[in-house]
Specification:
Oligomer: single chain
Shape: globular
Number of strands: 11
Structural class: mainly beta
Order of helices and strands: EEEEEEEEEEE
Low-confidence stretches: none
Mean pLDDT: 96
Length: about 130
Amino acid sequence: QVQLVESGGGLVQAGGSLRLSCAASGRTFSTYAMGWFRQAPGKEREFVAAINWSGGNTNYADSVKGRFTISRDNAKNTVYLQMNNLKPEDTAVYYCAKGQDRYYSPSPSVFQYSYWGQGTQVTVSS
């Protein structure tokens, strides 16, 4: 059973930064793409960023390009999301997810991910 545990969320002023972490259990972490998604109240879950198994290929939503950076440390079974220049519209619950198939590209589709964390709240005040 795969477990994903997010941490690092909180309350920050607009223009500030946060770093989210997602720790994964299991021995096959290093062979799967990982993704970050977010969901604001009353809205659908949306793609934020994804990274392939090696860290050599990344994918970002247009709304976060140039502000957010996804990375991973396969030795620590952890994926990160560095969020800079945060805006009030970034306020949401942030979820990490493990890819459905080994060695696949970092997909923006929720259907390409089979395991999800419980989420961590990010609130950006104006």
